[in-house]
Amino acid sequence: MTAPAGPEAANPTRAGAAGVVLVALVACQFVMVLDTSVMNVSMVEVAKDLGADITGIQTAITLYTLVMASFMLTGGKLGQILGRKRAFIIGCVVYGAGSLTTALSQNLAMLLVGWSLLEGLGAALILPAIVALVASNFTQDKRPRAYGMLAAAAAVAVTAGPLIGGVFTTYLSWRWVFLGEVVALLGVLVVARRIADTPPTPGTRLDLGGTVASAAALGLFVFGLLRSSAWGFLHPKPGAPEWFGLSPSFWLMVAGGIVGRLFFIWEGRVIERGKEPLLDPMLLENIELRAGLLAFFFQFLLQFGLFYLISLFLLVALGLSPIGAGLQLMAFSVTLLAAALGVPKRFPDVSPRRVVRLGFAAFVVGLVTLIMALNVGSGPDVVTWPLLIAGLGAGMLASQLGSVTVSSVPDDRAGEVGGLQNTATNLGSSIATALTGAVLISALTTSFLTGIQENPDVPEPTVASAEVELEAGVPFLSDRDLTIAMDEAGVPPAAAASIIAVNTAARVRALQGALGVLLLIAVVALFTSGKVPAHQPGRRPPPA
């Protein structure tokens, strides 16, 4: 099923204002992603300013992701009830209030209210509305470029976050980033009057039971994922809580899956009673929509997993500053922007399926290139070509997937699709960090402990002590931090030098192992993209 042409076709004035509307939506998308990236870089300074510890700031980051993911489906439905434009405006106001509260925070409690709660709720309203507003402001032939711009804005925000956060933290204050977001959102609100809207669906009410069930299912699953690095994925780490012999993360994810199943049963019964569900399960029987959502999931899993591993390599293994790491990561954005904008412009009739497959193939080539090039003596330039290649793949995906998912349903369902799309991307990015982090630490632990056991320069007592103290996993440490820790422990200089060499080699092998897992996922994504439509929306040949 394809959506009817949007208002741009019938309203030349609206078509002339489309560029301004797109800039506003892109700016909003950029802001939504930027502050998480900035916060990750600025944690130490934020904690110092607020009199908190790093654990408190990490909790704020976790809760922001949790709130946003839990209410994404609800935010999409509220757009249908209130109207997408109104939901978008309300979301901007709530998010702006959260950014202002964050900028003025005097303690951790204010940060939790401003950033974790208000910004999380605002994002849950804004992100699905953006997806729907593109559908109501652009005809089908213009949507690939518009959705490509939105995806590019998100990726640029991720790669530019360390650079922007590093500059502001070093020379001004992290607070100015959030004040800048307030100014940007005020500008978006000024332009919002020019955005075309689809009217709210008459008589639609919010399914409260579905809202609670979906929030609980997504919240439990995502929280379990986010805490798996601290608690362990299946078996509890030493010192971590234990539920019936297993990690709480495992049980939380299982509970999330069970509640998710109950959610779909509930929605089926809501439909049987003739009422409006939060999410119509029949939507997920749409093959093209399902294929687009799966591709989105894989894209964000690969993209965020790659960012996570390369950031660790640049910041920890090589000791670059956040500004230096940000400059290296910008290579990804260069080719992403070129592909996201260039493919729809130069090849408007190209097969979405072919572009998506080429996109995942580019991820495969980029990952293979990085795995082969990475070695103990590698400098920061080793990531440049892999990032350029992977960025090209991400740009190809960005140029098609948004249009594929939204155009698979009528325009009046675009808000629901926006909620599903952002849920898929949130799950992909959350799983990326948890999965690559777990593989990285597991590989690092095995390689490091094996290395010191086989090294004759490391005394037996030191090996035995390391095996006991590092039972929970070897942390991904820089040579400098490891040297300081060994000095404090009184490790002899000769043994310390050997341990440093072992750790350096183990870091590289661990990174290669984690990148190898991403490579396998990229291959799976390549071979599961066969249900993506072969023709652009509105350009399909008539049946024979």
Features:
544 residues; mainly alpha; 0% strand; globular
Layout: helices, strands, pairs:
Layout: H1 12-50, H2 54-70, H3 72-82, H4 84-103, H5 108-137, H6 143-171, H7 175-191, H8 208-231, H9 248-272, H10 287-317, H11 322-346, H12 352-373, H13 384-398, H14 401-406, H15 414-453, H16 460-469, H17 479-489, H18 493-527
Give an overview in words.
This protein has 544 residues and is mostly helical. The protein has 18 helices and no strands. Helix 1 packs antiparallel against helix 2, helix 1 packs antiparallel against helix 5 and helix 5 (108-137) packs across helix 15 (414-453). The two termini are 18 Å apart.
Structural class assignment: mainly alpha
Portion in strands: under 5%
Coarse morphology: globular
Order of helices and strands: HHHHHHHHHHHHHHHHHH
Give me the number of helical elements: 18
**What's the overall average pLDDT, rounded?**
81
Largest sheet: none
Helix content: over 70%
**Uncertain runs:** 1-13
Radius of gyration (Å): 24 Å
Q: Span from first to last CA? A: 18 Å
